[in-house]
Amino acid sequence: MTNPLPTKARVAEYAGGVRRRVREGGLGPAPVLLALAVTWVVFQSLNDKFLSPRNLSVLSVDIVGTGMVAVGIVFVLLIGEIDLSVGSLAGLAGAVFAALHVNVGMTEWLAVVVAVVCGTAIGALHGFLFAKFGVPAFVVTLAGLLTWSGLMIYLLGPDSSISFSEDGLVASLTSRYYSAPGFTYGLAALCTAAYLLVSLRDRARRAGAGMPCRARSGIWVRTGLLAAVAFTTVAVLGHFEGLPLALLIFLGFIVASDLLLRRTPYGRQVLALGGGVEAARRAGVDVTRVRVSVFMIAGTLAAVGGLFVASRFTSASQVSGSGMLLINAVAAAVIGGTSLFGGRGSTWSALLGVLIIQSIASGMALLGVETAVQFMITGGVLITAVIFDSLARRTAASRVRT
Fold this sequence. Notes:
By secondary structure, the chain is mainly alpha-helical. The protein has a single domain, classed as ABC transporter involved in vitamin B12 uptake, BtuC (Orthogonal Bundle), CATH 1.10.3470. It is built from 16 helices and four strands. The chain has helices spanning 4-24, 30-46, 53-78, 86-104, 108-133, 137-156, 169-175, 181-208, 216-238, 245-263, 265-275, 277-282, 287-313, 323-335, 348-367, 371-401; strands at 161-163, 177-178, 243-244, 315-317. The protein has a two-stranded antiparallel ribbon with strand order 1-4. Strands 2-3 form a two-stranded antiparallel sheet. Helix 3 (53-78) runs parallel beside helix 10 (245-263) and helix 4 (86-104) packs parallel to helix 6 (137-156). The longest helix has 31 residues, at 371-401.
């Protein structure tokens, strides 16, 4: 007869490991995914339209504008700084595009390029003032918030908005869908296969070098989960209008930025800088270059996000550059798991965080709850995430001292 004590000991050891990872903030995205699942279950139980294909399709497009801005915020947070100008930059990009295309008559694609380049240039300016002159990033970007908001209002003119064609390039960013099953399911299969092949290749390379590597069983489990999510998403959205182009572009940006952070020397320099400026400098990191580049990325993605917000309304207005866009973008990055203290986080945080925020907004709208309650709930979720982040940082610091 088998002695139950070893099993109990293993369970106790596993539970202790989980508690330790909770204290150290080492559970990865699990808490965020759990919070998202709870959010969806609660709203679905209150209104059975919440998880309908139509509402999920609208949700998948609504997250993109804020999510793009949040991805840029993740880069800034990773070096332990903050950018308060991204909301006004997003609004300015929409205003620049609309003013050039509608008022001046510039071709649409060129107006898009100019708007995005403006975001990149402004981000470089913020980074240069911060990195070269030592002006705190908070102050630089706060001044930018005011300056670019004023320029946006000036460009929009007395009507405070500029409408553009519903059939043009920018409008199609949030209005185009792909419904052909061969394409959508093929894309899901291709992404799943690519993840599996890359994971197995990395494992083989690390094992060959004698480095720690993930077990094959773990890779297959993750691949199975990814396949389930991908094919379920395709199936559900296919019951409405299909896969939104906006969602595909957003996921493409997240994957590309994640690869940039995790698999390139530049990404390792960003994470090293977030772990400590002096230590990064002694390790050979060009601190000034990395700081400027991070703000350039944030400015670029803010401009891209602003174009998606404008696309949703087929107009550029002050709504595109409102303070709520900044607040939601920062909240999305932090709620998704990026540390406010730098050195820890992922661009996937932007996706998870903005999903929670927009799910709350969508659920509240279906229930007819006033916006004030939505703000309070989102604020509660944000402060909870910050508390966990602070506790994880304190625990890690105490472990280093001991």
